[in-house]
Amino acid sequence: MATMSNSLPLRHGLSLWCPQSASLNRAHQPSSSTGFRSFRRTYVAASSAFTNENRESASEFVIVGGGNAAGYAARTFVEHGMADGRLCIAYAPYERPALTKGYLFPLDKKPARLPGFHTCVGSGGERQSPEWYKEKGIEMFYEDPVTSIDIEKQTLTTNSGKLLKYGSLIIATGCTASRFPDKIGGSLPGVHYIRDVADADSLVSSLERARKVVIVGGGYIGMEVAAAAVAWKLDTTVIFPEYHLLPRLFTPSLAWRYEELYQENGVKFLKGMTICNLEAGSDGRIAAIKLEGGSTVEADTVIIGIGAKPAVSPFERVGLNTSNGGIQVDGQFRTNIPGIFAIGDVAAFPLKMYDRIARVEHVDHARRSAQHCVKALLSAQTHTYDYLPYFYSRVFEYEGSQRKVWWQFFGDSVGETIEIGNFDPKIATFWIDSGSEFQLLPKLARSQPFVDKSKLQNASSVEEALHVARTSLPVEAAV
Ligand SMILES: Cc1cc2nc3c(=O)[nH]c(=O)nc-3n(C[C@H](O)[C@H](O)[C@H](O)COP(=O)(O)OP(=O)(O)OC[C@H]3O[C@@H](n4cnc5c(N)ncnc54)[C@H](O)[C@@H]3O)c2cc1C
After folding, report:
1. Could you give all domains of the chain from N- to C-terminal order, each with its CATH number?
2. Where does the record place the Monodehydroascorbate reductase 3-like C-terminal domain (predicted)?
Protein backbone atom coordinates (compact mmCIF):
# COMPACT_ATOMS: atom_id res chain seq x y z
CA MET A 1 0.00 0.00 0.00
CA ALA A 2 1.26 3.52 -0.78
CA THR A 3 2.58 5.95 1.82
CA MET A 4 0.23 6.37 4.71
CA SER A 5 -0.06 8.94 7.39
CA ASN A 6 -2.10 8.64 10.54
CA SER A 7 -0.77 11.45 12.60
CA LEU A 8 -1.89 14.85 11.51
CA PRO A 9 -1.80 17.44 14.29
CA LEU A 10 -4.90 17.95 16.45
CA ARG A 11 -5.98 21.50 16.02
CA HIS A 12 -9.60 22.08 15.23
CA GLY A 13 -12.06 19.29 15.54
CA LEU A 14 -14.16 16.74 13.84
CA SER A 15 -17.26 16.84 11.71
CA LEU A 16 -19.61 14.04 11.02
CA TRP A 17 -22.39 13.77 8.48
CA CYS A 18 -25.23 11.38 8.49
CA PRO A 19 -28.27 11.57 6.31
CA GLN A 20 -30.94 10.52 8.74
CA SER A 21 -33.44 8.87 6.49
CA ALA A 22 -33.12 8.67 2.76
CA SER A 23 -30.02 6.89 1.59
CA LEU A 24 -27.72 8.94 -0.52
CA ASN A 25 -28.75 7.19 -3.71
CA ARG A 26 -32.36 7.96 -3.11
CA ALA A 27 -31.50 11.51 -2.18
CA HIS A 28 -30.50 12.08 -5.76
CA GLN A 29 -33.49 10.46 -7.35
CA PRO A 30 -35.90 12.57 -9.35
CA SER A 31 -38.71 14.31 -7.49
CA SER A 32 -41.30 11.73 -8.49
CA SER A 33 -39.72 9.09 -6.26
CA THR A 34 -40.75 8.38 -2.70
CA GLY A 35 -37.11 8.69 -1.60
CA PHE A 36 -36.90 12.28 -2.79
CA ARG A 37 -40.03 13.24 -0.90
CA SER A 38 -38.51 11.96 2.31
CA PHE A 39 -35.21 13.68 1.47
CA ARG A 40 -36.94 17.05 1.08
CA ARG A 41 -38.86 16.59 4.28
CA THR A 42 -35.93 15.69 6.47
CA TYR A 43 -32.87 17.47 5.13
CA VAL A 44 -32.62 20.47 7.43
CA ALA A 45 -29.48 22.45 8.10
CA ALA A 46 -29.81 22.71 11.84
CA SER A 47 -26.43 23.82 13.02
CA SER A 48 -25.87 27.53 13.38
CA ALA A 49 -22.25 26.92 12.48
CA PHE A 50 -23.30 25.82 9.04
CA THR A 51 -26.26 28.00 8.22
CA ASN A 52 -24.32 30.14 5.79
CA GLU A 53 -24.82 28.14 2.60
CA ASN A 54 -21.48 28.45 0.89
CA ARG A 55 -19.32 29.22 3.81
CA GLU A 56 -16.17 27.17 4.10
CA SER A 57 -15.66 25.40 7.41
CA ALA A 58 -12.37 23.97 8.54
CA SER A 59 -12.01 20.96 10.82
CA GLU A 60 -8.95 18.95 11.46
CA PHE A 61 -10.93 15.71 11.76
CA VAL A 62 -13.98 14.96 9.70
CA ILE A 63 -16.10 11.82 9.78
CA VAL A 64 -18.43 11.31 6.86
CA GLY A 65 -21.35 9.09 7.83
CA GLY A 66 -23.58 8.89 10.83
CA GLY A 67 -24.13 5.23 11.53
CA ASN A 68 -22.77 2.67 13.93
CA ALA A 69 -19.12 3.18 13.12
CA ALA A 70 -19.44 6.98 13.28
CA GLY A 71 -21.16 6.83 16.68
CA TYR A 72 -18.40 4.69 18.15
CA ALA A 73 -15.73 6.84 16.51
CA ALA A 74 -17.31 9.92 18.10
CA ARG A 75 -17.26 8.21 21.49
CA THR A 76 -13.59 7.32 21.07
CA PHE A 77 -12.76 10.92 20.15
CA VAL A 78 -14.60 12.07 23.29
CA GLU A 79 -12.77 9.50 25.42
CA HIS A 80 -9.55 11.03 24.14
CA GLY A 81 -10.66 14.53 25.08
CA MET A 82 -11.38 15.54 21.53
CA ALA A 83 -14.90 16.93 21.92
CA ASP A 84 -15.57 20.11 23.90
CA GLY A 85 -16.71 22.31 21.07
CA ARG A 86 -14.53 20.69 18.51
CA LEU A 87 -16.73 17.98 17.12
CA CYS A 88 -19.52 18.53 14.64
CA ILE A 89 -21.87 15.66 14.25
CA ALA A 90 -25.06 15.05 12.33
CA TYR A 91 -28.19 13.24 13.47
CA ALA A 92 -27.25 11.19 16.50
CA PRO A 93 -26.14 7.73 15.31
CA TYR A 94 -28.08 4.69 16.46
CA GLU A 95 -27.62 0.93 16.73
CA ARG A 96 -28.86 -0.09 13.29
CA PRO A 97 -29.57 -3.79 14.10
CA ALA A 98 -32.57 -2.74 16.23
CA LEU A 99 -34.45 -1.77 13.06
CA THR A 100 -35.37 -5.33 12.14
CA LYS A 101 -35.73 -6.51 15.73
CA GLY A 102 -37.42 -4.48 18.50
CA TYR A 103 -38.39 -1.70 16.09
CA LEU A 104 -40.74 -4.00 14.16
CA PHE A 105 -42.61 -5.37 17.16
CA PRO A 106 -46.36 -4.74 16.90
CA LEU A 107 -47.40 -1.45 18.47
CA ASP A 108 -48.97 -3.13 21.52
CA LYS A 109 -45.79 -5.09 22.26
CA LYS A 110 -43.57 -2.18 23.29
CA PRO A 111 -41.57 -1.65 20.10
CA ALA A 112 -38.12 -0.06 20.37
CA ARG A 113 -38.01 3.60 19.43
CA LEU A 114 -35.37 6.30 19.43
CA PRO A 115 -33.85 7.67 21.60
CA GLY A 116 -33.79 4.21 23.24
CA PHE A 117 -31.15 2.70 20.96
CA HIS A 118 -28.74 5.47 20.12
CA THR A 119 -25.11 4.35 20.07
CA CYS A 120 -23.40 3.19 22.19
CA VAL A 121 -26.07 1.28 24.16
CA GLY A 122 -25.55 -1.84 22.04
CA SER A 123 -22.22 -2.53 23.72
CA GLY A 124 -23.34 -1.46 27.18
CA GLY A 125 -22.06 2.09 26.70
CA GLU A 126 -23.67 5.44 27.32
CA ARG A 127 -26.73 6.39 25.28
CA GLN A 128 -25.47 9.12 22.98
CA SER A 129 -28.70 10.99 22.46
CA PRO A 130 -28.66 14.41 20.77
CA GLU A 131 -28.31 15.88 24.30
CA TRP A 132 -25.16 13.82 24.87
CA TYR A 133 -23.52 15.41 21.83
CA LYS A 134 -24.64 18.83 22.99
CA GLU A 135 -23.25 18.24 26.47
CA LYS A 136 -19.93 17.21 25.00
CA GLY A 137 -19.89 20.38 22.96
CA ILE A 138 -20.51 18.53 19.73
CA GLU A 139 -22.33 20.47 17.04
CA MET A 140 -25.21 18.77 15.29
CA PHE A 141 -25.24 19.10 11.53
CA TYR A 142 -28.45 17.77 10.07
CA GLU A 143 -28.74 15.93 6.82
CA ASP A 144 -26.56 17.18 4.06
CA PRO A 145 -24.66 14.28 2.52
CA VAL A 146 -21.21 14.66 1.12
CA THR A 147 -21.35 14.50 -2.65
CA SER A 148 -17.73 15.01 -3.66
CA ILE A 149 -14.20 15.28 -2.41
CA ASP A 150 -11.19 17.23 -3.63
CA ILE A 151 -8.16 15.29 -2.52
CA GLU A 152 -5.64 18.00 -3.38
CA LYS A 153 -7.44 20.81 -1.60
CA GLN A 154 -8.59 18.44 1.17
CA THR A 155 -12.17 19.62 0.93
CA LEU A 156 -15.56 17.98 0.89
CA THR A 157 -18.65 19.40 -0.79
CA THR A 158 -22.12 18.61 0.46
CA ASN A 159 -25.39 18.26 -1.39
CA SER A 160 -26.39 21.81 -0.45
CA GLY A 161 -23.06 23.20 -1.67
CA LYS A 162 -21.24 23.62 1.63
CA LEU A 163 -17.51 23.20 1.61
CA LEU A 164 -15.54 21.67 4.46
CA LYS A 165 -11.81 21.48 4.76
CA TYR A 166 -10.40 18.48 6.55
CA GLY A 167 -7.06 17.55 7.99
CA SER A 168 -7.85 13.88 8.50
CA LEU A 169 -10.94 12.27 7.07
CA ILE A 170 -12.71 9.14 8.29
CA ILE A 171 -15.10 7.63 5.76
CA ALA A 172 -17.90 5.74 7.56
CA THR A 173 -20.60 5.74 4.92
CA GLY A 174 -21.67 2.11 5.42
CA CYS A 175 -23.82 0.42 2.81
CA THR A 176 -27.03 1.00 0.93
CA ALA A 177 -29.60 -1.76 0.49
CA SER A 178 -29.48 -3.55 -2.86
CA ARG A 179 -32.66 -2.85 -4.80
CA PHE A 180 -34.63 -4.51 -7.55
CA PRO A 181 -34.66 -2.37 -10.69
CA ASP A 182 -37.65 -0.06 -11.20
CA LYS A 183 -38.44 -1.81 -14.46
CA ILE A 184 -39.36 -5.00 -12.60
CA GLY A 185 -41.32 -3.09 -9.96
CA GLY A 186 -38.55 -2.55 -7.42
CA SER A 187 -39.90 0.84 -6.33
CA LEU A 188 -43.65 0.18 -6.31
CA PRO A 189 -45.56 1.55 -3.31
CA GLY A 190 -45.69 -1.22 -0.72
CA VAL A 191 -42.21 -2.55 -1.64
CA HIS A 192 -39.74 -1.94 1.20
CA TYR A 193 -35.98 -2.02 1.78
CA ILE A 194 -34.58 -1.53 5.26
CA ARG A 195 -31.48 0.46 6.01
CA ASP A 196 -32.53 3.32 8.25
CA VAL A 197 -35.21 4.53 10.66
CA ALA A 198 -37.27 6.15 7.91
CA ASP A 199 -37.34 2.82 6.05
CA ALA A 200 -38.42 1.03 9.23
CA ASP A 201 -41.13 3.65 9.91
CA SER A 202 -42.46 3.21 6.42
CA LEU A 203 -42.53 -0.58 6.87
CA VAL A 204 -44.31 -0.29 10.23
CA SER A 205 -47.03 1.82 8.65
CA SER A 206 -47.45 -0.79 5.90
CA LEU A 207 -47.58 -3.62 8.46
CA GLU A 208 -50.40 -1.82 10.26
CA ARG A 209 -52.55 -2.22 7.13
CA ALA A 210 -51.05 -5.40 5.66
CA ARG A 211 -52.67 -8.78 5.16
CA LYS A 212 -50.27 -10.69 2.95
CA VAL A 213 -46.57 -10.08 3.46
CA VAL A 214 -43.88 -11.50 1.21
CA ILE A 215 -40.22 -11.33 2.11
CA VAL A 216 -37.71 -11.73 -0.69
CA GLY A 217 -34.38 -13.07 0.56
CA GLY A 218 -33.47 -15.74 3.09
CA GLY A 219 -30.66 -13.84 4.82
CA TYR A 220 -30.75 -12.49 8.36
CA ILE A 221 -32.65 -9.30 7.41
CA GLY A 222 -35.38 -11.34 5.69
CA MET A 223 -35.60 -13.79 8.57
CA GLU A 224 -35.79 -11.06 11.22
CA VAL A 225 -38.54 -9.28 9.29
CA ALA A 226 -40.44 -12.57 8.85
CA ALA A 227 -40.29 -13.20 12.62
CA ALA A 228 -41.70 -9.71 13.20
CA ALA A 229 -44.43 -10.07 10.56
CA VAL A 230 -45.93 -13.11 12.27
CA ALA A 231 -46.06 -11.14 15.52
CA TRP A 232 -48.48 -8.86 13.64
CA LYS A 233 -50.45 -12.04 12.80
CA LEU A 234 -49.92 -11.56 9.08
CA ASP A 235 -49.89 -14.15 6.35
CA THR A 236 -46.11 -14.34 5.78
CA THR A 237 -44.13 -16.01 2.99
CA VAL A 238 -40.36 -16.00 2.48
CA ILE A 239 -39.04 -16.51 -1.05
CA PHE A 240 -35.41 -17.09 -1.98
CA PRO A 241 -33.45 -18.70 -4.80
CA GLU A 242 -31.22 -20.95 -2.69
CA TYR A 243 -32.18 -24.32 -1.31
CA HIS A 244 -31.94 -23.28 2.30
CA LEU A 245 -32.00 -20.04 4.24
CA LEU A 246 -28.89 -18.22 5.46
CA PRO A 247 -26.71 -20.18 3.04
CA ARG A 248 -23.58 -18.16 3.83
CA LEU A 249 -23.72 -18.94 7.56
CA PHE A 250 -25.86 -22.01 8.15
CA THR A 251 -25.36 -25.64 7.23
CA PRO A 252 -28.37 -27.26 5.51
CA SER A 253 -29.18 -29.07 8.76
CA LEU A 254 -29.07 -25.91 10.88
CA ALA A 255 -31.13 -24.08 8.28
CA TRP A 256 -33.70 -26.85 8.23
CA ARG A 257 -34.21 -26.61 12.02
CA TYR A 258 -34.48 -22.84 11.78
CA GLU A 259 -37.03 -23.16 8.97
CA GLU A 260 -38.99 -25.56 11.13
CA LEU A 261 -39.10 -22.99 13.93
CA TYR A 262 -40.46 -20.43 11.47
CA GLN A 263 -43.00 -22.86 10.08
CA GLU A 264 -44.24 -23.56 13.61
CA ASN A 265 -44.81 -19.81 13.82
CA GLY A 266 -46.84 -19.85 10.61
CA VAL A 267 -44.22 -18.70 8.08
CA LYS A 268 -44.35 -20.29 4.62
CA PHE A 269 -41.30 -20.81 2.42
CA LEU A 270 -40.85 -20.83 -1.32
CA LYS A 271 -37.29 -22.05 -1.80
CA GLY A 272 -35.25 -22.26 -4.98
CA MET A 273 -37.46 -19.57 -6.55
CA THR A 274 -36.35 -16.56 -8.57
CA ILE A 275 -38.38 -13.38 -8.89
CA CYS A 276 -39.36 -12.20 -12.39
CA ASN A 277 -41.51 -9.19 -11.63
CA LEU A 278 -43.21 -7.29 -8.85
CA GLU A 279 -46.66 -6.47 -10.17
CA ALA A 280 -48.91 -3.53 -9.33
CA GLY A 281 -52.66 -3.72 -8.79
CA SER A 282 -55.18 -1.24 -10.20
CA ASP A 283 -54.32 1.20 -7.36
CA GLY A 284 -50.66 1.22 -8.40
CA ARG A 285 -49.52 -0.58 -5.23
CA ILE A 286 -47.75 -3.93 -5.13
CA ALA A 287 -50.29 -6.71 -5.60
CA ALA A 288 -48.35 -9.81 -6.62
CA ILE A 289 -44.96 -11.33 -7.25
CA LYS A 290 -44.42 -13.23 -10.44
CA LEU A 291 -41.92 -16.07 -10.18
CA GLU A 292 -39.79 -17.68 -12.83
CA GLY A 293 -41.81 -20.60 -14.13
CA GLY A 294 -44.96 -18.49 -14.26
CA SER A 295 -46.50 -18.86 -10.80
CA THR A 296 -47.72 -15.81 -8.89
CA VAL A 297 -47.85 -15.01 -5.17
CA GLU A 298 -50.25 -12.37 -3.89
CA ALA A 299 -48.83 -9.67 -1.62
CA ASP A 300 -49.83 -6.24 -0.35
CA THR A 301 -46.49 -5.66 1.39
CA VAL A 302 -43.11 -6.84 0.13
CA ILE A 303 -39.78 -6.55 1.91
CA ILE A 304 -36.64 -7.05 -0.12
CA GLY A 305 -33.62 -8.30 1.80
CA ILE A 306 -31.12 -9.22 -0.89
CA GLY A 307 -27.95 -7.69 0.49
CA ALA A 308 -26.23 -4.34 0.49
CA LYS A 309 -23.58 -2.42 -1.42
CA PRO A 310 -20.82 -0.25 0.04
CA ALA A 311 -21.67 3.46 -0.21
CA VAL A 312 -18.57 4.70 -1.99
CA SER A 313 -20.02 6.97 -4.67
CA PRO A 314 -18.59 10.35 -3.54
CA PHE A 315 -15.17 8.73 -3.15
CA GLU A 316 -14.86 6.86 -6.41
CA ARG A 317 -12.50 7.99 -9.12
CA VAL A 318 -10.40 10.17 -6.81
CA GLY A 319 -7.56 7.73 -6.40
CA LEU A 320 -8.82 5.70 -3.44
CA ASN A 321 -8.43 1.97 -3.93
CA THR A 322 -11.93 0.55 -4.40
CA SER A 323 -10.89 -2.55 -6.32
CA ASN A 324 -12.23 -4.85 -3.57
CA GLY A 325 -15.71 -3.36 -3.60
CA GLY A 326 -15.32 -1.15 -0.56
CA ILE A 327 -12.53 1.30 0.24
CA GLN A 328 -9.34 -0.62 0.83
CA VAL A 329 -7.42 0.10 4.02
CA ASP A 330 -4.52 -1.38 5.95
CA GLY A 331 -4.57 -2.85 9.47
CA GLN A 332 -4.99 0.65 10.93
CA PHE A 333 -7.76 1.70 8.55
CA ARG A 334 -5.51 3.97 6.49
CA THR A 335 -6.40 4.18 2.82
CA ASN A 336 -3.80 4.59 0.11
CA ILE A 337 -4.22 8.38 0.38
CA PRO A 338 -2.45 9.93 3.39
CA GLY A 339 -4.84 11.34 5.97
CA ILE A 340 -7.90 9.42 4.71
CA PHE A 341 -9.30 6.49 6.66
CA ALA A 342 -12.29 4.17 6.18
CA ILE A 343 -14.13 2.13 8.83
CA GLY A 344 -17.20 -0.08 9.25
CA ASP A 345 -19.12 -1.72 6.41
CA VAL A 346 -17.46 0.38 3.72
CA ALA A 347 -13.89 -0.64 4.57
CA ALA A 348 -12.14 -3.56 2.86
CA PHE A 349 -9.49 -4.48 5.42
CA PRO A 350 -6.93 -7.25 5.99
CA LEU A 351 -8.68 -10.00 7.94
CA LYS A 352 -5.49 -11.08 9.61
CA MET A 353 -6.49 -14.46 11.00
CA TYR A 354 -7.68 -15.70 7.61
CA ASP A 355 -5.04 -13.84 5.62
CA ARG A 356 -7.37 -12.21 3.14
CA ILE A 357 -8.92 -8.81 2.40
CA ALA A 358 -12.53 -8.70 3.55
CA ARG A 359 -15.45 -6.35 3.95
CA VAL A 360 -17.53 -7.24 6.98
CA GLU A 361 -21.09 -5.98 7.37
CA HIS A 362 -21.43 -6.71 11.08
CA VAL A 363 -22.09 -4.25 13.85
CA ASP A 364 -19.31 -5.68 16.02
CA HIS A 365 -16.77 -4.83 13.32
CA ALA A 366 -18.27 -1.35 12.86
CA ARG A 367 -17.70 -0.67 16.57
CA ARG A 368 -14.24 -2.18 16.81
CA SER A 369 -12.92 -0.71 13.56
CA ALA A 370 -14.04 2.76 14.68
CA GLN A 371 -12.31 2.44 18.01
CA HIS A 372 -9.15 0.99 16.48
CA CYS A 373 -8.94 3.67 13.80
CA VAL A 374 -9.47 6.63 16.14
CA LYS A 375 -6.99 5.28 18.68
CA ALA A 376 -4.42 4.85 15.92
CA LEU A 377 -5.17 8.35 14.70
CA LEU A 378 -4.87 10.03 18.10
CA SER A 379 -2.15 8.02 19.76
CA ALA A 380 0.93 6.11 18.93
CA GLN A 381 -1.01 2.83 18.71
CA THR A 382 0.48 0.93 15.82
CA HIS A 383 -0.77 -2.62 16.18
CA THR A 384 -2.69 -4.18 13.36
CA TYR A 385 -6.44 -4.78 13.62
CA ASP A 386 -6.93 -8.46 14.36
CA TYR A 387 -10.61 -9.16 13.98
CA LEU A 388 -12.49 -12.32 14.80
CA PRO A 389 -15.67 -12.27 12.68
CA TYR A 390 -18.72 -12.24 14.94
CA PHE A 391 -22.34 -12.00 13.97
CA TYR A 392 -25.57 -12.45 15.89
CA SER A 393 -29.29 -12.38 15.28
CA ARG A 394 -32.29 -12.37 17.62
CA VAL A 395 -35.77 -13.37 16.55
CA PHE A 396 -39.26 -13.87 18.02
CA GLU A 397 -38.34 -11.79 21.04
CA TYR A 398 -41.61 -9.95 21.43
CA GLU A 399 -43.88 -10.33 24.43
CA GLY A 400 -46.04 -13.46 24.19
CA SER A 401 -43.75 -15.27 21.76
CA GLN A 402 -43.61 -19.04 22.32
CA ARG A 403 -39.89 -19.17 21.87
CA LYS A 404 -37.29 -16.41 21.75
CA VAL A 405 -34.17 -17.31 19.79
CA TRP A 406 -30.73 -15.76 19.84
CA TRP A 407 -27.87 -17.17 17.80
CA GLN A 408 -24.24 -16.19 17.44
CA PHE A 409 -21.65 -17.00 14.83
CA PHE A 410 -17.89 -16.71 15.32
CA GLY A 411 -15.18 -17.20 12.73
CA ASP A 412 -15.55 -18.62 9.24
CA SER A 413 -17.98 -21.24 7.91
CA VAL A 414 -15.30 -23.28 6.18
CA GLY A 415 -14.59 -26.98 6.53
CA GLU A 416 -16.30 -30.12 7.75
CA THR A 417 -19.07 -29.61 10.29
CA ILE A 418 -20.07 -31.36 13.47
CA GLU A 419 -23.47 -30.57 14.90
CA ILE A 420 -24.32 -31.10 18.55
CA GLY A 421 -27.75 -30.86 20.12
CA ASN A 422 -31.13 -30.82 18.43
CA PHE A 423 -32.25 -27.22 18.94
CA ASP A 424 -34.34 -28.42 21.87
CA PRO A 425 -33.37 -26.17 23.49
CA LYS A 426 -29.87 -25.66 22.06
CA ILE A 427 -27.79 -26.51 19.04
CA ALA A 428 -24.13 -25.85 18.19
CA THR A 429 -22.23 -26.35 14.97
CA PHE A 430 -18.45 -26.62 14.85
CA TRP A 431 -16.66 -25.95 11.58
CA ILE A 432 -13.51 -28.06 11.53
CA ASP A 433 -10.97 -27.18 8.91
CA SER A 434 -8.54 -29.97 7.92
CA GLY A 435 -9.99 -32.11 10.70
CA SER A 436 -8.26 -30.16 13.44
CA GLU A 437 -9.45 -26.63 13.80
CA PHE A 438 -12.45 -25.26 15.60
CA GLN A 439 -14.42 -22.26 14.69
CA LEU A 440 -17.27 -21.47 17.00
CA LEU A 441 -16.89 -19.56 20.20
CA PRO A 442 -14.34 -16.75 20.34
CA LYS A 443 -11.57 -18.53 22.20
CA LEU A 444 -11.95 -21.65 20.13
CA ALA A 445 -12.16 -19.71 16.92
CA ARG A 446 -9.12 -17.63 17.72
CA SER A 447 -6.79 -20.30 19.11
CA GLN A 448 -8.00 -23.12 16.86
CA PRO A 449 -6.83 -25.98 19.12
CA PHE A 450 -6.32 -29.62 18.18
CA VAL A 451 -9.34 -31.56 19.33
CA ASP A 452 -10.39 -35.14 19.78
CA LYS A 453 -12.85 -35.33 16.92
CA SER A 454 -14.49 -38.60 18.00
CA LYS A 455 -15.08 -37.27 21.54
CA LEU A 456 -16.68 -34.19 20.06
CA GLN A 457 -18.81 -36.24 17.72
CA ASN A 458 -19.99 -38.46 20.57
CA ALA A 459 -20.89 -35.59 22.86
CA SER A 460 -24.48 -35.97 23.98
CA SER A 461 -25.16 -32.29 24.57
CA VAL A 462 -23.94 -28.85 23.60
CA GLU A 463 -22.50 -28.47 27.12
CA GLU A 464 -20.52 -31.70 26.79
CA ALA A 465 -19.24 -30.69 23.35
CA LEU A 466 -18.14 -27.33 24.70
CA HIS A 467 -16.42 -29.10 27.57
CA VAL A 468 -14.54 -31.30 25.09
CA ALA A 469 -13.60 -28.20 23.12
CA ARG A 470 -12.58 -26.24 26.20
CA THR A 471 -10.28 -28.99 27.45
CA SER A 472 -8.46 -28.90 24.12
CA LEU A 473 -7.56 -25.24 24.56
CA PRO A 474 -4.11 -24.21 25.79
CA VAL A 475 -4.28 -23.52 29.55
CA GLU A 476 -3.95 -19.75 29.19
CA ALA A 477 -6.81 -19.58 26.65
CA ALA A 478 -9.08 -21.92 28.62
CA VAL A 479 -9.33 -19.67 31.68
C1 LIG B 1 -31.78 -3.58 9.35
C2 LIG B 1 -30.40 -4.02 9.73
C3 LIG B 1 -30.24 -4.98 10.71
C4 LIG B 1 -28.96 -5.39 11.07
N5 LIG B 1 -28.81 -6.35 12.04
C6 LIG B 1 -27.57 -6.77 12.39
C7 LIG B 1 -27.40 -7.78 13.37
O8 LIG B 1 -28.35 -8.31 13.92
N9 LIG B 1 -26.13 -8.12 13.71
C10 LIG B 1 -25.03 -7.55 13.13
O11 LIG B 1 -23.89 -7.92 13.47
N12 LIG B 1 -25.17 -6.60 12.18
C13 LIG B 1 -26.40 -6.21 11.79
N14 LIG B 1 -26.56 -5.25 10.82
C15 LIG B 1 -25.35 -4.67 10.20
C16 LIG B 1 -24.86 -3.48 10.99
O17 LIG B 1 -25.91 -2.64 11.35
C18 LIG B 1 -23.85 -2.72 10.15
O19 LIG B 1 -22.74 -3.59 9.98
C20 LIG B 1 -23.40 -1.43 10.80
O21 LIG B 1 -24.48 -0.54 10.95
C22 LIG B 1 -22.33 -0.76 9.95
O23 LIG B 1 -22.00 0.47 10.48
P24 LIG B 1 -21.45 1.65 9.53
O25 LIG B 1 -21.31 2.85 10.39
O26 LIG B 1 -20.30 1.15 8.76
O27 LIG B 1 -22.62 1.89 8.49
P28 LIG B 1 -24.08 2.42 8.77
O29 LIG B 1 -24.53 2.09 10.16
O30 LIG B 1 -24.91 1.94 7.64
O31 LIG B 1 -23.93 4.00 8.68
C32 LIG B 1 -23.54 4.67 7.51
C33 LIG B 1 -24.03 6.10 7.60
O34 LIG B 1 -23.39 6.89 6.61
C35 LIG B 1 -24.36 7.73 5.99
N36 LIG B 1 -23.88 8.11 4.66
C37 LIG B 1 -23.81 7.36 3.55
N38 LIG B 1 -23.31 8.08 2.52
C39 LIG B 1 -23.05 9.33 3.02
C40 LIG B 1 -22.53 10.53 2.46
N41 LIG B 1 -22.14 10.60 1.20
N42 LIG B 1 -22.44 11.63 3.26
C43 LIG B 1 -22.80 11.58 4.54
N44 LIG B 1 -23.27 10.46 5.13
C45 LIG B 1 -23.41 9.35 4.37
C46 LIG B 1 -25.60 6.87 6.00
O47 LIG B 1 -26.76 7.62 5.82
C48 LIG B 1 -25.51 6.26 7.40
O49 LIG B 1 -26.01 7.13 8.38
C50 LIG B 1 -27.82 -4.82 10.44
C51 LIG B 1 -28.00 -3.86 9.43
C52 LIG B 1 -29.27 -3.47 9.08
C53 LIG B 1 -29.45 -2.45 7.97
Report:
1. 4-20+404-478 (no CATH), 39-175+309-378 (3.50.50.60), 179-306 (3.50.50.60)
2. 388-435
